[in-house]
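Example 3.2
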Amino acid sequence: PPERKRFYQNVSISQGEGGFEINLDHRKLKTPQAKLFTVPSEALAIAVATEWDSQKDTIKFYTMHLTTLCNTALDNPTQRNKMQLIRAAVKFLETDTICYRVEEPAALAELQKNEWDPVVAWAEKRYNVAIGSSTSILGPNIPASTKETFVSHLASYNMWALQGIEYVITQLKSLILSMGLIDRHITVEKAVLLSRLEEEYQIQRWGSVEWAHDYDLCELCARTAAGTLFVHLCSESSTVKHKLLQD
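Structure, written as tokens:
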């Protein structure tokens, strides 16, 4: 949506029947489908309220990743159920970025092996599955048992967290990197770098457009970090001490 002028002075949160709500002055925030904007945890409510409070003269919706994820979870515009969300996430295994390898140039092939193999090995051990990699355009042959293991693991997350997991996977084009990130095995910066390994290799070799590369990298880091935070905040049942938007 286009930017609009900031129309509120104060942002606060309150607890309602369905969870925690966001108040813009005396108005309650609503979703694009006009549902009451209600989130399951106080920590997530504080994070969303901070996004709204950090807007200056105009509201830049494209910077409010947590708000967008909450809207998606509340409105569910694609009308998918839990298993459909899980299957969509697991389907990324078939085209996972770090499973597709090159044979040439040799330097890039070596870089992929050195950087990606340890993450694949971690995932295989962590989930007791076989994943592997391939230089074929068809990609690796992922065993059905591996897919079902990830289906079972993802089923342990609630619907809100699953929306966040799919969002992170979409950013990184990798289920394996996303799970490494959500399981706190790798950092956001590391996950983003590994997802862009070939691009970073080409940039180091040929250079980059002066501003475009840095902008794309910062945007990807911001979206990936927001998605990961969203998953963690939607997975925690504990509330944080009530402290909000102090100057």
